[in-house]
């Protein structure tokens, strides 16, 4: 007896996901509209600790794909679990997490964008899409939409629809692509000593009996950010809050100190804007 079309399609999606996961690509199902599934009932309203925009997963142990891109997995036991079965039954496509696979996808959404890439970017592995092409580079960077007309960058904290393996040889992520995600000046990337964010209050009681005390505090903050394996944005904010609460009221913090923290955060995928916002919010929370 012939299986219904929908059943065959679901089986094909799951078979594709298994093959990609076996090759090391973290995969996730997409629902209609080519978007990830949202929070599962057990994690509704981010009860498990995820951020509202689903860009940072919380400490969730729920087996269903409840955090968008962060649900991507290579674990066959998760993909084949009964908990994921209802989601696969509703899936319209399969996607993967480029950053988790160590790659960056330049999504070219129309012929004009494709022509721009051919004139401006190094040739790499190419996948034909419905309206344009995906250019895939080896290496990761922060994801960013609408970096120019018809062009999105999908890597860390992002997802891309799987279409096929593409053609051509994948090359290293070029600076020309990294530059696309820089939408405003980022002093902390090139010259941390010239940051424009306020450093903190002045005139408070100074806790720094020796310069070593402050340096140790900054080093601990850098280490905490560097070792973060999830919830990076929240970790950055909490680190900034801790540094400011201990070292920020006496005027001893310098641009160089803050630059070290910003550089560590950006190495984990945070943008200059996120760093500035987190610093400003931490100062506001402390009444500084």
Topology summary:
Blueprint: H1 5-22, E1 27-31, E2 35-36, H2 76-79, H3 85-90, E3 93-96, E4 103-108, H4 111-120, E5 125-128, E6 133-138, E7 144-148, E8 151-154, E9 160-161, H5 175-178, H6 187-190, H7 211-226, H8 232-247, H9 255-267, H10 272-285
Antiparallel strand pairs: 1-2, 1-3, 3-9, 4-6, 4-8, 5-6, 7-8
Helix pairs in contact: 7-8, 7-9, 8-10
Structure notes:
It is a single chain. With 288 residues, the protein is α+β, with helices and mostly antiparallel strands. It has ten helices and nine strands. Strands 5-6-4-8-7 form a five-stranded antiparallel sheet. A four-stranded antiparallel sheet has the order 2-1-3-9. Strand 7 and strand 8 (151-154) form a beta hairpin. Residues 51-58 and 184-194 have low confidence and may be disordered.
Shape: globular
Helix content: 25-40%
User: What is the arithmetic mean of pLDDT?
Assistant: 80
What fraction of the residues are assigned to beta strands by DSSP?
A: 5-15%
**In angstroms, what separates the terminal alpha carbons?**
71 Å
- The total of helices stands at 10
Q: What keywords describe this structure?
A:
five-stranded antiparallel beta sheet; 10 helices; alpha+beta; 288 residues; 9 strands
